[in-house]
Design goal:
alpha+beta
Amino acid sequence: MADFLGMMKQAAQLQSKMKEMQEQLDHIEVEGISGGGLVSVRMTAKMDVKGIKIDPSLMKPEEAEILEDLLVTAMGDARRKAE
């Protein structure tokens, strides 16, 4: 019986530690970059996007497809860093 109570106490401590670690992930931020720095995406380690920066030179209608591709690449880079 004492072993069982000890195991339950350890399980509760582990659960508390896991919750604390999950909360810390909200405060860890990574930055994904593409196009040599033309596009950057900032996100938390929980994959919440916090910001996107786009170089003004990409703000041309004829560059829309390139910008879209760079955003996807930057988000993927940030996701990999967060993982």
